[in-house]
């Protein structure tokens, strides 16, 4: 990949990318979905990229799968489908396109490639990793199997293809409890998120044993933060992602996947809400929910924040950063991901 100055100069040779009032006006409808959180001058700088990317998508028969943690100009401006990890995986398996651009992190792009091997999958930034995916290798899975013989391995989708291939089934935060409960064995191994596993264990009749990985965004929240915040701003609804430690989830009014959180806030419309998760979540739904005051601190995922309009345009333009998964690994990993998708569909999730 070129460095940023080279990339910028190459892109500006091909596209009109100067801040533009005219393009901002042309995409006024798109801007209306984020004008509570993106200022007009910022929109003037984004609009030329939104225009160029949307044109190029048509020319290349490409779709952009955007995770709920993308910034608003990506989430609303160029994504064809948005959602949580489970929704994006399901979409990757049936979307009609030649190219998928994954506006998310690397394990998501691998999941798309595993499910759609015939499609070209592009990652805007190959360094958009994940602390959970980095915490375990296939050897770690074998270590857990040796420690708990016969117990099935349920791995979070936030893992590499090799880890998925070494597991029995995958899960996401929106189906983890149901997947664990559906296992035949009394003891179930969950990897690599210790907190998701503990949160599942608190609601399951299974003996859940787990790997000690964690998400650097969600592990920072403490129960004291929530108690202090409630005291400081009474009436605030506290909504936590299940990657948070169990004592944080216990203090929250609701816990769910990123799409579960969006659904809860959309249905409940609390006067004040604090989303105990990544910062872009609140920004992406602020315009749709003008009656909700999103308050309080949030944490940024440095990996998700590596994705930008500029890098999306670059990979669509150049075809660089294609994601490949070894065919034998992909076949085994597909088994784990497909088992999760099939079970989720069967359970109506
Ligand atoms: P979900 O979108 O599945 O809730 O996962 C959150 C996450 O951390 C993705 O990186
Ligand atoms: Fe990984 Fe956490 Fe970032 Fe999600 S938010 S990509 S789990 S580090």
From TrEMBL:
Free-text remark on how the cofactor is bound:
Binds 1 [4Fe-4S] cluster per subunit.
Q: Where does iminosuccinate bind?
A: 67, 85, 156-158, 173, 241-243, 258
- Broad class of enzyme this protein falls into: transferase
| Keyword Transmembrane helix listed | no
Cofactor(s) demanded = [4Fe-4S] cluster
Q: Which controlled-vocabulary keywords does the entry list?
A: 4Fe-4S, Cytoplasm, Iron, Iron-sulfur, Metal-binding, Pyridine nucleotide biosynthesis, Transferase
Residues annotated to bind [4Fe-4S] cluster: 130, 215, 301
Q: In which pathway does it act?
A: Cofactor biosynthesis; NAD(+) biosynthesis; quinolinate from iminoaspartate: step 1/1
Q: Which reaction does it catalyse?
A: iminosuccinate + dihydroxyacetone phosphate = quinolinate + phosphate + 2 H2O + H(+)
One Gene Ontology MF term: 4 iron, 4 sulfur cluster binding
Question: Where does the record say this protein resides?
Answer: Cytoplasm
List GO BP terms, alphabetically.
Answer: 'de novo' NAD+ biosynthetic process from L-aspartate
Q: Does the keyword 4Fe-4S apply?
A: yes
Spell out the GO cellular component terms annotated for this protein, sorted alphabetically and separated by semicolons.
Answer: cytosol
Q: Quote the PANTHER family the UniProt record gives.
A: QUINOLINATE SYNTHASE, CHLOROPLASTIC (PTHR30573:SF0), QUINOLINATE SYNTHETASE A (PTHR30573)
Task: Identify its protein family.
Answer: Belongs to the quinolinate synthase family. Type 2 subfamily.
NCBIfam families listed in its UniProt record: nadA, PRK09375.1-2, PRK09375.1-4
The task this protein performs is described as: Catalyzes the condensation of iminoaspartate with dihydroxyacetone phosphate to form quinolinate.
The molecule here is called Quinolinate synthase
Q: Which organism is it from?
A: Harenicola maris
